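Homework help board

Subject: predicted structure for assignment chain

Our instructor gave us this sequence and asked us to write out the predicted structure in token form, then describe one feature. I got the tokens but I'm not sure how to describe them. Can anyone check?
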Amino acid sequence: MPEGDTVHQAAGRLHKALAGERLTVSDLRVPRLATADLTGRTVLEVVARGKHLLTRLEGGLTLHSHLRMDGSWRIFAPGERWRGGPGHQIRAVLGTASHTAVGYRLPVLDLLRTSAEDEAVGHLGPDLLGPDWSPGEALARLLAAPGREVGEAVLDQRNLAGIGNVFKSELCFLLRVTPWLPVGELPDPERLTALAARLLEANRHRPRRTTTGRPDRPLYVYGRAGRPCLRCGTPVRTAQQGDPTRERPTYWCPGCQSGPAPAPAT
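My token output:
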């Protein structure tokens, strides 16, 4: 599940493979970009902004993509067999003399002027892994709606950019509060932004995400419904939080985390 750490890793791989190289292949397989041809343009850089990827090109163009739940960019050497899904799931191909980047299942793919990138990412709050990270600004945005549930507030990319469903559950566990606690009732709200930044920074370069530091049990609560809490042994619970049309299971330990919880819970 792509979150801020994995998106920054993807940006790094794309930048390493493409930056400074001239495109010899350009194939954007979405209807509105079917006639766009980027062949001959040099890739200047690839950067992450929250969960968004910005591939900046010579001539003032940016290819904007978002991975959401299961999108991915894969890098292949010349002649290497493409692996990442069936061909009908490919949404973008960017090739140079030395590498080919293939975008699979990209739900968002847009071509825009680099000067107009704010149209795609200007709504985002401070990026937890970006040069614009400001814990004070992120905290101010979170506390602007003190009655909002912590879990929903940290998922809102307008508050702080980079947290997804995994880090949401893990962050709340480490804060010892349930995801349904109102933001205004956090005993130490400054700790939230500091811990969020520390979690993502610690996973910036890790191939496998962890919050526990244990390779055998990398996460405290996420994906561990019904299993004993690693800290107190109480069975971990799961429930839906927020928009019921989006499948976002939330995990927490009723023994370690204080605050409201949904009923019934499993």
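Reply (TA_rk): Your tokens look well-formed. For the description, you could write something like this. The first helix runs from residue 4 to 18. That's the kind of observation they're looking for.
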